[in-house]
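Build the 3D complex.
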Amino acid sequence: MRFDVILDSFMSAPDMTRCARLADEYGLGGLWIANNFNTRDAFVNFVPAAMETSRVRMGPTAISPFELHPMKIAHSLLTLNEIAEGRAQIVIGGGGGTAENLGHKPHRMVRAVRECVEILNQAIAGKPGSYKGEMYQVGWMDVDWAKQPAPAIYVGANGPQMLRAASRYAAAIMSSDFTPDRIRWAHELIDPGLNERGVDPATFPYNNFWAWHVQESREQAHKEARIYLAVRGTIYPDYIRDVVNEEEAQIVTANESEFLKAYMAKTSEIKGVSEEILTKIVDGGVSASPLSEIEREIERMREFRDAGLTEIALCVYSNPEQAIRTIGEHLVPALA
Amino acid sequence: MEIDIILNEFTSPQQAVELGLMAENYGVRGVWASNYGWSRDPFMALSLLADRSSRIRLGPMAISAEELHPLKMANLLFSLNEMSRGRAMIMVGAGGAVLQAIGKERGRMIRSVRECLEILKGSSPDKTMNYDGDMYKVWGYKPAYATDEPPLIYYGSNHPQSRRVAAELADGLITSDFVVPLMKEFVDATHADLESVGRSPADFRISNFWAWHIKEDAEASAREARRELMLRGWLGEQYFAPFLEEDEVKLMRDHEQDFLDAFLRSTDVIENVPDDLVTKMIENISFVGGLDKIDAAIETLHEFADAGLTEIALRVHDDPADALRLIGERVMPAMR
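Done.
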């Protein structure tokens, strides 16, 4: 199983480069930056890291064609790929905050993502030509300077429609905040499409964005995890029942705004939701064990692997370098 | 008057480092990366140079808000600016080849650039921006990382309406293919525009894109200049009228397709147009010829300086290192 790390969107290029070197040394598979409208451009910011590493892959997650035309995405991705000598990667998603902060309202997301990936694939294939989609056009594209091994292109997919559609054309998929049971559910949706095109579901690159809050103590870990629950898909109606019962789910849904308030204030205090419920969400929806109980997280990773993940992207928060060491020293060897 | 270099559209990030550092050592003020539908991403192409250089300014030209939303443009620009420690610049334009390549047409060009300049100039690490323009929206933008000396923002402007917007909102403007008499008129008008909005001409930068074809081999120089001639002012009458007779201008306009065919076929053979007319055109609207033409080029550069340019952007084509060497060794000392 491959282990990736997702770094803080606000990280500077020198800090990213330090993390990248470490990830390279520990044999991690990839580095990601979560796309955010208020941060440095992810492609540009990866350049020093690309120059100072040799193995680890790198790229942004997720870029939406509603924020950047697919041909522009292709140019940025392939330029990073050239600098990284074939180690660039990207997740293409259908919406996200950035597009909304530009005043764009994503629509026909499944179609938009598919057309975007088709344009990227056309660019990567190195065939000069045009593209006429329903949503995106390319008058002429010729990137014959792109000679490196192809970058990895993932489709960001959580919903049934996007998962089914992606299974019919994507080279890789990344979901977010899916529990092992939810990964099994996703495989039921994508396996038919994969089988139809002769792709073995067992080896198809399937990744999952997963929050990593492992700290020295359980208290520290849970405190950090609670701050970020508002940005976990887990607490929202489609997924909350994956980690709590029906009655508890209704309480969580009724208090969604409290999670957001806690996130904005960077506090672990979430009003209206009991300690018991919060603990269940954190225990089931993210990795927040104390370091002394790292075996529990190793076991969780085995569950993910057995459910059908081939790779996992662990989103790290405070002290990312320590997190990379922990992942590199404990998880990588255990699931090699 | 300072000298900038415009790198050709085929320049890789590694080549940009070699050429950019060479230019820096010669005392060149800045390097520009060309933005074409088939080029690398111009911000990315300069990112390695940004990291490794220490004095030279750098930036992409021209970027249109119709191809790249101003907020995305701002993050790319500020990221490049941070990486270069406050030496980034950009030329914003109405859109050309890239716009066509992504299947879009020029719309409200002046409005588009005006809103783009307002967003770029209004972005601040200290104050949240909410911008509700006719064409672009920005919600909640606050690039906290953008704390370096702000980048220089130019408007690519050849016309009175865009010139007035530049005088109002930009740090400078860049014309293209203006011969000296045109330049003089435009600079005078720009200064008047600046004064009308209460800005001092002393604080405003004015540059002109000018093609450099001079080589050791005079014939190779002429071939290159002929091949590229279509791009000189897109054969607009106003650019050639100062040095062509009326009947020559008409002949040129009547044979626009022949010039375009030569460019598209990458040949110096311009069918159906007399050689002496082509020679007259290339000799007046670019620097062309063998090494014996350098002194005349320097004389023209002094005339541009006298016309009021603060800098000039010399566009190099084939064998850019050779061109840069000539500029560095012959032109730079003469312009100090």
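Chain B touches chain A through 40 residues (CB under 8 Å).
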